Amino acid sequence: MSDTPVADIKMSARGLSVHYGDKLALKGVDLDMAAGEVTALIGPSGCGKSTFLRCLNRMNDTIPTARVSGRVILDGEDVYGPGGIDPVLLRARVGMVFQRPNPFPKSIYDNVAFGPRLHGLYAEGEELDTVVRSSLEKAGLWNEVKDRLIEKGTSLSGGQQQRLCIARAIAVSPEIILMDEPCSALDPIATAKVEELIDELSQSFTIVIVTHSMQQAARVSQRTAFFHLGDIVEVGATEQIFTNPANPLTQGYITGRFG
Ligand SMILES: Nc1ncnc2c1ncn2[C@@H]1O[C@H](COP(=O)(O)OP(=O)(O)O)[C@@H](O)[C@H]1O
Ligand SMILES: [Mg+2]
User: Which site in 72, 116, 124, 199 is 20 to 30 Å from 239, CA atoms measured?
Assistant: First the structure.
């Protein structure tokens, strides 16, 4: 495993393993994710990328057969430790955007206001309006929806729905945003918009993105981790991984020999 030192570590995994029943899906992986960077997770289908990502905000807690061991450290604190972070608060700090846009069957406004209301962050009215607007602006959606905030989120196009989900994630001011193949259900134009957005968001948030598109990983990330059969085989600067991978498995994957 080749690696370059990470300057400012926001989150790290140490010896992180996940079983689903008897099946070992993640085999004790280590990874550092730097503040203000985009970390891309790549690798063949079924190699544990989503499983890893879901550990970072304890989404695996919601899968009855899943058992997590090892450590996930956020700003020096073990999120699975005794007296660890409350999962609901953790998910406000570590937001998530899924493969299929999943707006709630509520208005555009209420989708974005959902998290702030859940956590009682802002007063109804002007204060909440301001947060909804700025979240939609940051998600690059404001101009498209400002006159239709009371319409259902599900009435938007797929690409708009995904940006709405990003606005919803941003609205609680997370520190980290996890994205699991956020463009896989989008057309190329919507994908380009979301990729541009990821680049902008990386100024303010630490981002971890799973992608099956190596072009996407190369375009949006600064560091890339290559997963294979539940292990991280190689991690390093994105450019190095794509131009000069150290591991033959990585080489095979990026040149399309398997995957
Ligand atoms: N909820 C689940 N129950 C049982 N097995 C699962 C579950 N989710 C994933 N797995 C298994 O764990 C392994 C890793 O899956 P996953 O993390 O989804 O991989 P990836 O995201 O890289 O495609 C696969 O073998 C998959 O079948
Ligand atoms: Mg997956």
Answer: 72
> Ligand 1: which of 18, 27, 51, 68 to mutate, judged by most atoms within 8 Å of the beta carbon?
51
- Expressed in angstroms and rounded, the spacing between residue 48 Cα and the centre of ligand 1 is 6
Is 238 within 8 Å of 39 (Cβ atoms)? no
Distance (Å, whole) CA 140 – CA 108: 14
CB atoms within 10 A of CB 132: 23
Examine residue 130 and state whether it is found in any structural domain, yes or no: no
Domain with 62, as residue range(s), is 9-104+178-254
d(CA 211, CA 183): 8
* Strand, helix or coil for residue 229: coil
Above 60 in pLDDT, residue 3?
A: no
Mean pLDDT of 224-251: 96
Q: How many domains, in total, are found in the chain?
A: 1
Q: Which two tokens stand for residue 186?
A: 């989008």
